[in-house]
Amino acid sequence: MIENKTSPWIFWIGFCLLLIPGLVHAYLLMPFPGSQDLNAITVSYYLEKIITPLRIAGAIMVLFYIVKYFTANTLKNKVIKVAALVFYLGTFYVSDVLYKAETMFEEPKTVSFANAVHNHVPESLVILGVVNNGVAKAYPLVYLGYHHKVQDNVGGEPVLVTYCTMCRTGRVFSPVVNGKRQDFRLVGARHYNAVIEDAATKSWWYQATGIAAAGPLKGSHLKELYYEQSTLGAWLAKYPGSLILQPDSHYLTDYNDLKNYDRIQAIDKDSTIKNKDTLVRKSWIVGVIVDKQAKAYNWRNLVKKRLLNDKLANTPLMVSLEKDSLTYHVWNRMVNGKELHFNLDPAGLLTDQETVSTWNWDGLCTAGVNKGAQLGKIQAYQEYLHSWRHFHPGTSFQ
């Protein structure tokens, strides 16, 4: 009877408004079991917009209850309600502080670059390389993998260099939206891919596609900028004057957690899988899109063969891997209106079968009939199989 006279429903409704929206939101935007398989990005988007008002309403109800009714509670009911509020504060710390994407993966506090002479990054590390207006910059994956994004300038143009470790893929975009450069924040993840938000419109963008999935600009595309993924050594061989992103001393422990991330597949560490050539969710592939047609190449097969002549959307392709087994390229095999077929000679040099011309690893013919010709570069992405398949459901495989 005493409990009924204290109108406990006021407290418990307020408590639910404080607790439940935040927990649901955190569940949907973090890789908890089952959460990433739900088609819930729109729910997540609008839920984030109303969490604060719901919490304010809940706090008002709880505060009203405490002022008006709390003293009339029995000792048992007082303890229960205090314990509930302590529980809420704990969940709030976990969902909004400890495991909030922006907190877990902070942006660099200091973004510094060095040339090859003053560089402290091992040349064996894999990087994303960007060239613009004669300026080359390299961004090591072990740093990008923690930060998820670096907002920078290359050759006087703004760039948004991104990397998602859950789907193992990088993208480089122009951060210009509706004519204005935007700052982006990391929101969380959906379908195991990082979601970022622009400051002006608050739209949510998938990192793997650059498509706005929710918000005022839903359906829009960020402009994608060409990049290459290679070892730093291979990159410097082509661009010796490149600047290299240096490690931020504030995050050395976080970087160390990604040690060997750029060279060892998850399948290599799984003792339950005997045939390591088996394609599983986290198998590496090289993905290519030509005229809206997508194709994925098995990384392990590429490591063995190192060079594949193929066609996609009637475009002749060469998919190749350098001797380091980490630096990959995709080029258009059409030169001066003729389709060329390539192979590696006994010395490991690229040659075409039609003219026996020699080509370097920048797609430039250095000797032979075609000397001076340049193969057209085609953007390609290293990615987990499950991610590529999700964002490109009609993809073909090789």
UniProtKB/TrEMBL annotation:
Pfam families tied to this protein: DUF3179 (PF11376)
InterPro entries membership: DUF3179 (IPR021516)
Transmembrane as UniProt keyword: yes
Keywords per UniProt: Membrane, Transmembrane, Transmembrane helix
Domain of life: Bacteria
Bilayer-crossing regions: 9-30, 50-67, 79-99
Organism this protein belongs to: Mucilaginibacter xinganensis
Protein name: DUF3179 domain-containing protein
